[in-house]
Design goal:
about 425 residues, mainly alpha, Ammonium transporter fold, 15 helices, about 0% strand, globular
């Protein structure tokens, strides 16, 4: 809903189909290879075991829950490259991301054999990297992929340059075709995050697990709410200083909410409620300025997924390294290591190592992948097809039937009504 509302009317079918195929490609890619790469034993990746093709692996709910995270990482990219990416390229990178690129990150951070895992027998600096529900693992991975794709794919026609290739004095904005769908999508995502964050507790009945899940629900709520307010009023203040007018941007509010959700995802189980408010407030500011940075660099992100997921994924990991409270890390991870705010730098070092690893891995793998697609002519649609819209050029017609009735029929109807009204008036007078 968020993607569909954010794009122009002529590309709604295309973006909706890509969202559906994220779930389909993610399910198949993660079933075949990704689940095994992520969670089987091995120093760098899992190489063999029952999780590949679910071969004699009976814990089906484990696969199902983890697949949803893989599909989430893939769908982040869809919004960024909307309105100009070929379907074939989209299918290629969606499957590649869920089958291999994302699972390698999972293996490093969430698998007990991973070199940064908090679940390792001897974690780095005694605690490893804490990323409870995926600010880095999921959102940074998807966001970094989106950033590489946007740079190589280039901006939409007319966004930063005119038809002759000259830079515009002011970037052209493409208004969303349905703000109502955007808001609906934002609320659905916020609601879904309660499965994402508290759900990452993975159980509820063992002693203490309910307390962890409850804390996750509270911190998730507070960070989302604060992020929305922070982003909207930061943008309003900037506008007031530069233009002298106080305006309140709905898109800033919605994406600020999502930024707060991304920012709290890593540390939702280990920070205090007051820290969640601080994390959300900074997430909103990070979103506003990173969004403006992309425009300054002429990187076109159709739905602002990169500021929301990549930049705030980084902030979420750093925030955990700063603000993780020892009483919560002890309950959630069985380790009393904590954030820099509590006078311990070990966790922050691990968070920075994790951020660096994710960036190097994703950029290092996806850059040649996207360059290859581009060189083969598989990445970007024809300029004329882009101008007409992908719904008509690729999907057998527009998403909405906007044809109006024949004007001749309208005129005849009007004439009949006028005649009938005249007769009624004459009869009443008689």
């Amino acid at each position: 809903m968020l993607c569909a509302g954010s794009v122009r009317q002529k590309n709604v079918k295309n973006i909706m189909l890509k969202n559906i195929l994220d779930a389909c490609g993610g399910a198949l890619g993660y079933y075949a290879i990704g689940f095994g790469v992520a969670y089987e034993g091995g120093t760098f990746i899992g190489t063999s075991g029952p999780r590949f093709f679910l071969n004699d692996y009976g814990n089906y709910i484990d696969f199902f829950f983890q697949f949803t995270f893989a599909a989430t990482a893939a769908t982040i990219v869809a919004g960024t490259v909307a309105e100009r990416c070929k379907m074939g390229a989209y299918l290629c990178y969606s499957i590649f991301l869920t089958a291999f690129v994302y699972p390698v990150v999972v293996h490093a951070i969430w698998n007990g054999d991973g070199f940064l895992s908090a679940f390792a027998e001897e974690p780095v600096r005694g605690v490893g990297m804490i990323d409870f529900a995926g600010s880095g693992v999921v959102h940074m991975t998807g966001g970094a992929t989106a950033l590489v794709a946007a740079i190589i794919l280039g901006p939409r026609i007319g966004r930063f340059y005119d038809e002759d290739g000259n830079a515009l004095d002011k970037p052209h904005d493409f208004p969303p075709h349905s703000v109502a769908l955007q808001v609906l999508g934002t609320f659905i995502l916020w609601f879904g995050w309660y499965g994402f964050n508290p759900g990452s507790t993975l159980a509820i009945s063992p002693s203490g697990y309910g307390d962890v899940a409850a804390l996750c629900a509270v911190t998730t709520t507070l960070s989302a709410a604060t992020g929305a307010v922070s982003a909207m009023f930061t943008d309003t203040l900037i506008g007031f200083i530069s233009e002298g007018e106080a305006e309140y941007d709905l898109s800033m509010c919605m994406n600020g909410c999502l930024s707060g959700l991304v920012g709290i995802t890593a540390g939702c189980s280990v920070v205090e409620p007051w820290a969640a408010v601080l994390i959300g407030a900074i997430a909103g500011i990070v979103y506003v300025f990173s969004s403006k940075l992309l425009v300054l660099l002429k990187i076109d992100d159709a739905v602002d997924a990169i500021p929301v997921h990549f930049f705030n994924g980084i902030w979420g990991c750093i925030a955990t390294g700063l603000l993780a409270a020892p009483r919560h890390t002890d309950l959630a991870y069985g380790a009393t290591n904590c954030g820099l705010f509590y006078s311990n730098a070990n966790l922050l070092v691990n968070e920075l190592l994790g951020v660096g690893f994710i960036i190097l891995w994703v950029v290092g793998v996806m850059t040649p992948f996207f360059f290859g697609l581009n060189m083969l002519g598989m990445f970007r649609v024809d300029p004329l097809e882009e101008k007409v819209g992908l719904d008509i050029s690729h999907h057998k017609g527009a998403a909405y039937d906007l044809t109006s009735p024949d004007q001749v029929d309208v005129d005849v109807l009007a004439e009949k009504r006028a005649t009938a009204h005249g007769k009624e008036t004459f009869a009443d007078a008689a």
